[in-house]
Write a structure and sequence with these properties.
The chain is mostly helical. The model has no long low-confidence stretch (mean pLDDT 84). It has one domain. The chain has six helices and no strands. Helix 3 packs antiparallel against helix 4.
């Protein structure tokens, strides 16, 4: 746990400079809270993540946070939760980069301890 907390401290310093990484950091913090059984804190962090993602027009993180929120609350089907496992990755040689705001994204579901 100490290593994770140290990593979070380093990332907190970095996001003061690289503002675009803040929503993703918040999503990872929410996941950390969930695996620490701090569900209320995790859900608050997800709401804040979605709000900030919307404000900065980061559709990918907004969708990912929304997906995690639904999965962790148990309101999506196991098919939706595991969809990322079933969809093959189609590699296109002409792609130099992917515009996440204009692409179809299948979010990864952060797994929770059982």
């Amino acid at each position: 746990m100490a290593e994770i907390k140290d990593t979070f401290k380093r990332v907190e310093k970095m996001i003061k400079i690289v503002k675009i990484a803040v929503p993703r950091y918040m999503l990872l913090r929410a996941y950390y809270y969930m695996i620490q059984s701090q569900r209320g804190t995790a859900m608050r962090m997800l709401r804040q993540t979605k709000k900030l993602s919307k404000k900065v027009d980061n559709k990918m993180i907004y969708m990912w946070a929304n997906h995690c929120q639904q999965a962790w609350l148990g309101v999506i089907s196991s098919v939706q939760e595991d969809l990322w496992k079933d969809r093959p990755i189609v590699k296109k040689n002409e792609w130099d980069e992917v515009n996440a705001n204009d692409s179809t994204i299948i979010p990864f579901t952060f797994p929770l301890p059982k």
